[in-house]
Amino acid sequence: MRIVLVGPPGAGKGTQAVRLAAELKIPHISTGDLFRANISQQTELGKLAKSYMDRGELVPDSVTIDMAKDRMEQKDAEGGFLLDGFPRNVDQAEALDGLLETEDFKLDAVLDLEVPEDEVVKRIAGRRICRNDSSHVFHVTYSPPKKQGVCDVCGGELYQRDDDSEDTVRTRLEVYHTQTEPIIDYYKAQGLVVTISSLGPVDEITKRALEALRREKAEQ
Fold first, then answer.
1. Per-residue confidence (pLDDT) for residue 111, from 0 to 100
2. Residue 107 sits in a domain of what CATH number?
3. Of 106, 161, 214, 215, which one is the catalytic site residue?
4. In the chain, how many H helices and how many E strands?
């Protein structure tokens, strides 16, 4: 299957992308991973992207599109892929359609993870990270530490990252509504959007997503 995963910040896209890709036996292609890999390997695209980033400028869509194209052309993606973080806007969605058309491929589904805005704020603004080890993550509501402000694992101080503050989260949501959400209407016009609730236990959401994707595939 060839799938695009969309949803607001805090919808659990990263977690579900890994789980769904493993279940469907297709590669998980994340924009963040693409940038990190190209920059660390010092590819021409990586050098180009870094030149913009070093100047504090946004990386042009054309560079992101070329990175995605290179990754989708690798052998492990011949049987399908799950795109996470790409496309981010309608221009990128149109470019993706063009790339797939040249290979005589098409998307099977666009999975939209739906979550109320207040829940997004609650999920992200409630995160607390250990200063000693950023892999130690807690949540004031869903997974609180035994002692407030103290990491259960190493005893380090827990803190809230600047980009997890409520004001920053709401700004990120506004960017999502303005730039990325329009691709849902773009793909709805093609009959590709499958919307599921991203509320509930992680396993339940994965099961819900797989059932919806397989149903969509069977109906095509």
1. 97
2. 3.40.50.300
3. 161
4. 9, 8
Count Cβ atoms within 10 A of the Cβ of residue 97 and give its class: 0-12 exposed, 13-18 middle, 19 or more buried: middle
Give per-residue pLDDT as tens, 81-95: 999 999 999 999 999
Q: Residue 107 in contact with residue 4, Cβ under 8 Å?
A: yes
Tell me the residue range of the domain where 29 lies: 2-219
Binding site residue list: 10-15, 31, 36, 57-59, 85-88, 92, 127, 137-138, 161, 172, 200
Q: Is 88 in the active site?
A: yes
This prediction has a pTM of 0.88
| pLDDT tens by residue, 16-73 | 999 999 999 999 999 989 999 999 999 999 999 999 999 988 889 999 999 999 999 9
> Which residues fall in the annotated binding site for AMP?
31, 36, 57-59, 85-88, 92, 161, 172
Number of domains in the chain: 1
